[in-house]
Amino acid sequence: MASRHHNFEPGFGVYVHWPFCLSKCPYCDFNSHVRHKPVDEARFVEAFKAEIAHRAAIAPGRKVSSIFFGGGTPSLMKPQTVAAILDAIGGAWSVDRDAEITLEANPTSVEAERFRGYRAAGVNRVSLGVQAMNDADLKALGRLHTADEAMAAVAVAASIFERFSFDLIYARPGQTPAAWKSELQAAIARAAEHLSLYQLTIEPDTMYERLFNAGKLAMPDADLSRALWDVTQETTNAAGLPAYEISNHARPGAESRHNLIYWRYGEYAGIGPGAHGRLQTAKGRLAQATEKHPEMWLTSVETDGHGVIDTETLSAEAQGDEFLLMGLRLAEGVDPDRFEALSGRKLPASRIADLVEHGMVELTRDGRVRVTPEGFPVLDAVVADLAS
Question: Could you write out the DSSP letters of every residue in 69-125?
């Protein structure tokens, strides 16, 4: 980790959700919607501004260290829409001079043409949903771009933004460890500083779940999944892009600061349809969620001044659980003192000792608890053991 991450201070982030996509990918369970008529961006901008003002009233005076446009497909937004939202954030809070401002983009030539506009608006990092480096698999994943088009978009991103990342999905039907290794090496050669690598999972209520249940989608068994995981770690480590979080790899110092806010259990405002937030207030730590359906969210913001439909003040126990659930995903691990401050209880020493004995977690020199490389492939079980 670079020195600026050593204080483990999460910072304050703003997440902005753009819920629209050109088509729905068969593996996707995110809040994304396809619209056949053009979206009224001016109307959405006004609603985003209202939401930003609402959150700033709850959590005033913050210094924003990261802004993230996620979705859906934020690269379907006009650059001036992004600029207007950034202006509103800058008016509601103060934005750090070197804030990380990320936008998720589809790697198509259409969207690459907008990259310069996003850069001018203030975006300084893009995250590209490449997903696969060959056309047959891209088609199976329901993506609308070809591998060549994706690599061309990556090259455009590299020429315009000082920082960029892209995503790949592995453990795809029929994928061998050898094929994945060569694909991953090709990706690393173009990735510069950051890669997100996700094992394909069958999520509820997706087209892939229906195909899987109908016996039309063969997923890798446990042994093959593990072999693909091992190849991922070996290949990225050898290239100097180790995992700093279970699915995210970066050169030291190039970690996604926005995602570190989540994993370090920091504070963030969630703006837009289906966005989630965690805000520290006089009442305690609030968990907020907004209306998911885009047009219903709009109506609710226009009527009530915000789209929040769920606000919960988290108990000490819930905060401790969330802190562990997020923090144990990080290679840096968690600080037991912070767990105690949040949850009001100590981490169970006997359980930690047991997990250490089984090689699943280790204690660092400065007393942090972190999951070992052996523990990461079974992270859910390790977390369940510690949080129970």
Answer: EEES-GGGS-HHHHHHHHHHHHHHSEEEEEEEEEEEE--SHHHHTTHHHHHHHT--E
pLDDT for position 212: 87
3-state helix, strand, coil in the chain (%, to 5): 45, 25, 35
Return the ∠ at Cα 20 (arms to 15 and 26), rounded to 5°: 105
Average model confidence (pLDDT) across the chain? 94
Choose between 286 and 9: higher pLDDT.
286
Orientation of helix 41-58 relative to helix 294-304, angle to 10°:
60
**278, 272 in Cβ contact below 8 A?**
no
C-beta neighbour count of 207 within 10 angstroms: 14
Domains 8-262 and 330-388 share a fold: no
**Domain ranges for the chain:** 8-262, 330-388
The 10 Å Cβ neighbour count of residue 372 is 16
In the predicted model, is pLDDT for residue 6 greater than 60?
no
| Range with the poorest average pLDDT among 4-8, 88-92, 297-301 | 4-8
- Let me know: does 14 contact 268? Beta carbons within 8 Å: yes
Q: Which fold has domain 8-262?
A: TIM Barrel (3.20.20)
- Report the distance separating Cα 280 and Cα 323, nearest Å: 14
H or E, element range at 367 = none
pLDDT at residue 378, rounded to an integer: 93
pLDDT digits (tens, 9 = 90+) for 118-147: 999 999 999 999 999 999 999 989 998 999
CATH fold of 330-388 reads Arc Repressor Mutant, subunit A (1.10.10)
Exposed, middle or buried by CB within 10 Å (0-12, 13-18, 19+), for 346?
A: exposed
C-beta separation of 31 from 205 below 8 A: no
Residue 329: which of 222, 243, 216 has the closest Cα?
243
